[in-house]
Amino acid sequence: MRRATADYVLTGARVRLGRGHWARAVAVRGGRIAAIGRDFSSIRDLIGPHTRVIESSGGLVVPGFQDSHVHAPFAGLDRRRLSLHGMKGRSAYLEAIATYAQRHRDNSWIVGGGWVAEHFPDGCPRKEDLDTVVPDRPVFLFNGDLHGAWLNSRALEVAGITKNTPDPVDGRIERDSVTGDPLGTLQEGAAYWVNDYFVPQPQQEEWEAAILNAQRYLHSLGVTGWQDAWVTPATQTAYESLTTQGRLTARVVGALWWDRNREMEQLPELLERREHGLAVVSPMAHLGSGFFPTSVKIMTDGVLENFTGALLEPYCDGCGGDSDRQGVTYLDRDLLACAVTELDTQGFQVHFHAIGDRAVRESLDAISRARSSNGKNDRRHHIAHVQVVQPDDIARFNELEVVANCQAFWAQSASERDDLTIPFLGAERARLQFPFAALLASGTQLAMGSDWAVTTADPLEQLEVAVTRISPQDRDHSPFLPEQRINLDDALDAFTIGSAYVNHDDQGGRIAVGSRADLVLLDTDIFAPGFITDHSAPISDARVQLTVAGGSVVYDAES
Known about the structure:
There is one protein chain. This protein has three domains: 8-63 and 514-556, Roll (Urease, subunit C, domain 1), CATH 2.30.40.10; 109-197, Diaminopimelate Epimerase, Chain A, domain 1 (Roll), CATH 3.10.310.70; 204-502, Metal-dependent hydrolases (TIM Barrel). It has 17 helices and 22 strands. The protein has helices at residues 72-80, 90-103, 127-133, 153-159, 189-197, 204-220, 233-245, 267-281, 333-345, 357-374, 391-399, 415-420, 422-425, 427-430, 436-441, 459-468, 488-502; strands spanning 8-18, 21-29, 32-37, 52-55, 60-63, 65-70, 82-83, 110-115, 139-143, 148-151, 171-175, 182-188, 223-231, 251-257, 290-299, 349-354, 382-385, 403-406, 446-448, 519-522, 544-549, 552-556. Helix 6 packs across helix 7, helix 9 crosses helix 10 and helix 16 (459-468) crosses helix 17 (488-502).
């Protein structure tokens, strides 16, 4: 009896089924993988008059990438507004800002982001620079990591920020060391306060357009699903609307934002938001795509570059001595443990931001408290960033069944890290950064996330850094802590089945008969013998030719 014909057949390229397991052909029908074959002849009978046959000699088929930590709505919004991402230096920023302001004369505010601290003295841009190009309207520009903002004098005036304005408890107003006047840089909570209360917020239509913009771009890079690490009520509404319209072709897990200025009274709202979101997606859950608000994001600290990353011992002063700064924890230990235990009780996954070693330890302590109270379960809590981790805490990840959510692209030498981080960590702590190999050796499950738009969304660039600890843009550079490199099998697994595991997506991250058809066709077989050597691993030179999500082609390089 003849088998039902396929919608698509991919043939000619090697198909990675798992570590050391390969095929040469895959057939897709009804959104799922219908057959896998050693060669084309083994699935020839699935080809009918309406089957699309996609041939690629020398390529590679892998599961769809899943990004376990991304800010898709905000990244898409930046792409539609003023984006400074990838520009090099103050002059380039100011030219772009001036051009944008001239082209958008009707905008009451100039809003965007993407600047990098390394291009300014002490990492702090000044209001006067913005005043020269936009003197008449307020300007508010988040930096690339969303932990600070650059404002002109008009924006500071609108927000009422003067030399006498006190710092908020969760942030800092950078000031002139002589006069005390605000420089024009706001850190952490100070930036968020201005953004939330003074900067015009996008309407739902703009959020929807931003998500679709981001989705198109992520699909072009082979990403078929992600976990949104900062879901607000507004972005949740946009995701839900796109789900009901059938326009969200990715599978998205939403990490609902934990308001660090409130305590446990916000839990009923989070529960209500989860139930509403799951009710929206339920009728279409069989499609595989949609929005699932089943996680909660807790920021435990800031970042090292502005000294808000939480450390167990004080920062160095950059000159060989110690300072009196240990960073900031946004929830005290008891509240964090209480929140995590109750979220765990209510069935939420917790998605932690933890940069410094104190933040990592307190996150692990909170999960340990939840385990003691509730016993083992399948929440799949995960800690993102894990930049500085003490050796004593490495084994605790596996012991507590905590996933290490790794931002691999960060694990390279960069001027921002060399100038604004390592001198203030000191040599001993600097060697503890991004310990991917140590975590893997301990038995810890790894997942991979880009943190886009903080850094690149391209999984291939991130895989290259995970394997080499060298920037793809400077392959002659020395590797950053090379002992923490991981192999390509482990890195790819982390970006596919590892991130799918975090997302409770037991159909994703794999190529197997009956599983959802999330597939990526690369033009290059990055697993070919000799492709990666001791001196070369040009993984990011490969290009995505085709992305299939839930059985539908969502990106085709030829078209």
